[in-house]
Design brief:
Helix content is about 30%, strand content about 35%. The chain has three helices and 16 strands. Strands 1, 2, 3, 4, 5, 6 and 7 form a seven-stranded mixed sheet that branches.
Length: about 300
Amino acid sequence: MTFIFTAVLYLGLNLGQETSMLEGNPHKPTLSVQPGLVVARGKQVTISCEVTTGAREYRLYREGGPHPWRTQTTPKTTNKAQFLIPSIEQQSGGIYRCYYKTPTGWSEHSDPLQLAVTGLYSKPSLSTQPSNVVNSGETVTLQCVSTLGFNRFVLTKEGEQKPSLIQNSEFINSTGQFRGLFAVGPVTPSQRWIYRCYGYHVNSPQVWSEPSDLLEIHVSEADQTLRPSPNTSNPKRVSQHQDYTMENLIRMGVSILVLVLLGILLFEAQHSQRQTQHASGRESSARFMVADTWG
């Protein structure tokens, strides 16, 4: 009985392996793009579909477009296929996927890659609230503003491929503008915090405005470096200030003492001169009286 069960199990496993090989289960390809996920209108773009097992036929498609959008066939097995867009326009933006063919069938589709084309609308403005100079560890609010009726705003950090944040816009009655608010942080001085923002409409999320001007957040390592509080100060500076004050007091005291001594000496000299003059006057009077007596 045990032998029969083992034989049936062995046959079942072999049958399962053969079925899996016939159906095929190739590894999922990886999709990437150069120069990046956010590209200015008119720039050249290269989309790459990479595999680990190798393939001869690759297919690329864009959601909402023809399927496949592009096909690339090679005489020899390769691990990568590149699809070139010489000059990208707004209709080329969107979500892309790729897949490839092997002797056992078609592979899984790659993870989605969202490509945004910029420069179709005028640029918004990016600013900070309340200032672009903040202390280390704090969170700063960035404000992206436009007069165009964008439904959403996108914040990107310089040097990063993917958008940092996406926010719904809100209308400001007092200014007639649309804005998106982004909380960034906590910030640290160990890296640079440089941002741009864009606006887009929800009916064409792959078409963005021109980028705003770059905005850099400057991070201070110490709370007192930028805005010293009147109630807090540097202990070293306080000590130096106290030393200077004590020296000035000592100098003032010595000066006053010298002036007092000089005043005393001057007073004694004048007093002594007066006594001498008085004594001389009395002596002269006495001589005059003696002379009169002898006369």
